[in-house]
Amino acid sequence: MTGIIDKTVLISGASSGIGEATVRELAATGARLFIGARRGERLAALAAELGGDVAWQELDVTDAANFEAFVAAAEARFGRVDVLINNAGVMPLSPLAALKRDEWTRMIDVNVHGVLNGIAAVLPRFVAQQSGHVVNVASIGAHLVLPSAAVYCATKYAVWAITEGLRLEHDEIRATIISPGVVATELGNDITDPAIAAGLKEWRKKSLTPDAIARAIRFALEQPEGVDVNEIIVRPTAAN
Ligand code: NDP
Asked: The Ketoreductase domain covers which part of the protein (predicted)?
């Protein structure tokens, strides 16, 4: 392993948390980075801080045409696309009985359609070049369900299944699931139920920092072409 990643890597949800940490981690590897999220001002500041081969464009993953334009812009900027990290996600938790249909829809749109839109944008290119790597950030919530997290977990089970399906259908394309446990980020800041927001704060007392997930993503990317890291689950210990 050289520590050098000579690839063009696209990252969604790069304006905060795990996405931002992944940008910082990969910038140190020499990878060419094309980063997206809706908050362009944060992306601009990050790209300016890191300099070098970090370019950005505003991205709403729920908009298929917008995602296609994002991938096309990365290709125009760097000549090719090698890796897509589908990291953008939202988690407005609530019990089912609260019937927060708008929040269910938003989670399904960002967490599931967003991942599918990203795959749709890169897949024809990856098939044509007979190589490519899709890294999907799922969650420990792709393996277990918690009260008030039924819809969120459903979206992450879906991400798990989509990634596994991609892997099975395309032997020439690497597909990696990253499943973090609790990480201290802005995720869930939009929870509208005060009791659940307080519960999340309690959970976060034992949490990872986002760089732990960034290192797991880097590990998957650094493997030789013939090695596909199928899934990495990363959870905090009491040492945090
Ligand atoms: P953050 O809230 O810090 O980051 C979420 C990112 O997603 C932001 O950059 C946000 O950018 C972006 N995003 C949200 N909606 C959209 C959209 N429509 N289009 C484009 N980007 C969007 O949370 P995390 O870093 O924690 O989350 C990253 C991923 O990790 C998510 O998929 C999350 O589900 C997953 N995860 C997180 C865990 C945790 O405990 N934190 C645990 C397990 C999984 P912007 O608002 O600028 O668009």
From this structure: 7-143
